[in-house]
Amino acid sequence: MHSHFIRFYLFILLAVFALVFSFGQLYSQFYAPPVQYNIPVESVFSAQKSDNPATFRYIHKSNIQLSSELRSQLKNQQTIAYAVNEQMYYLRNHDQNRYIQWGPVDISPESVDDNYLILFFYSGLAIVFLLLMWPMFRDLSFLQKCAIEFGENPQAQPLTIRKKSTVYPLAHALYTMSSRLVEFVTLQRDIAKIIAHEVRTPLARMKFVLKRVEGKIEDKHLQRMLMDIAELETLATDYMTFSRSQQLDPDYLQPLGLQTILCNLENKYRNLDTPVYFRFPEPTIEVFANQTQLELALSNLLNNALRYAQNQVQVSIDCDDNAVMFHIDDDGPGFDADRPRTNNQGTTTGFGLGLYIVESIVKRHNGELSKSSSPIGGARASVTIPRNIR
Q1: What is the spatial distance between Cα 304 and Cα 330, in angstroms, rounded to a whole number?
Q2: How many CA atoms lie within 13 A of 264 on its CB side?
């Protein structure tokens, strides 16, 4: 903010100086009074007492070379002045062939040094602009700091800017907005806790009842209900995990080895009915990411791929100097706009909350989520995040 202030301050000063200078030039060009050949009385009398007293004498026009402009002035009965050896002479038209000259007059009035006045004027102007502009930029710098802190840790920002400040309306709006957003975030976290805890209680009762009625209903219906209960428990767990991780901190993104992420996912998804194959990158490749959040996003994409896969799921990584791309491929039905995508149990489902969680995490990593056709015949979900902090 200080560098922005200096640049803006210098721009304003240069603009004002240029305006004042231009105004002075225009005034001298169009409004300045014409040149008057006024001679101080002391100079007139001193010229008569000098060794070379001022006298009138006639000069033939052919003996003096003048420009056409000066000749025109003399023809219009104007008086011109010229200096010779630091002495001033005055010339005027007398008749058709002669000029009349008076001089020499030693005119050496004390020059008025107005440089100090100009310097004082511009210095005062700079100080005035500094006093007017600095409080505004100071308050803007404070608002910028509050906005950054709010982005990292959503809390109501203090309203310490005085009402007389130029940016007080902006500060008041920021304070009101931050207070409301904090209320919404708090409400969202409370709802997440309520859902995560309260949903598990009826799910536990449902599992208990299913155990009691096991053998009294068909096995396919029992398994289907158990799968639905497991899916609800997974959603509640993911929602709770996502809610707890909403608060950002300055160290949210850290250097993280890509092999670390894939090793954790490989350990989590090994020995499944549908195998998951991992293609590991070079050991030295790193990315700035939050490990817990990124693994949660990739896990949700993997769970979705396993839901639709027929025989296998593949996880691979492509990277360049700027970004890392995580690809999750399955050999299921793929993304077809003409018919809904169905899982390997024949039912139609979607990402639901899992997609929202993935998109939120990817966005907080300054990345992108995309979907396309998989090289193994099904669907591909790709997560692209920058390798360095922006």
Answers
A1: 9
A2: 13
Helix axes 258-268, 291-308, angle to 10 degrees: 50
Closest CA to 66 of 31, 91, 100, 33: 91
Q: How many CB atoms lie within 10 A of CB 295?
A: 20
- Mean pLDDT computed over 100-129: 71
The burial of 91, by beta-carbon neighbours within 10 Å (0-12 exposed, 13-18 middle, 19 or more buried), is given as: buried
pLDDT of residue 350: 44
pLDDT in tens, 24-43: 766 666 655 555 555 666 66
Structure tokens at 116: 């100090």
Q: Is the pTM of this model over 0.85?
A: no
| pLDDT for the residue numbered 381 | 92
Q: Which of 361, 235, 233 is nearest to 292 (CA)?
A: 361
Contact in structure between 359 and 293 (CB atoms under 8 Å)? no
Spatial CB neighbours of 262, under 8 Å, sequence gap ≥ 6: 278, 280, 281, 315, 317
Burial-class residue 289 by CB neighbours within 10 Å (0-12, 13-18, 19+): buried
- Could you tell me the two tokens for 164? 């007389």
pLDDT band, residue 187 (cuts 50/70/90): confident
| Buried residues in 164-183 as b, exposed as e (16+ CB within 10 A) | ebebeeebeebbeebeeeee
Count of positions (residues) in the chain:
390
Cβ burial, residue 385 (10 Å; 0-12/13-18/19+): buried
Q: How confident is the model at residue 329 (pLDDT cuts 50, 70, 90)?
A: very high
Burial profile 206-225: b = 16 or more Cβ within 10 angstroms, e = fewer: eeeebeeeeeeeeeeebeeb
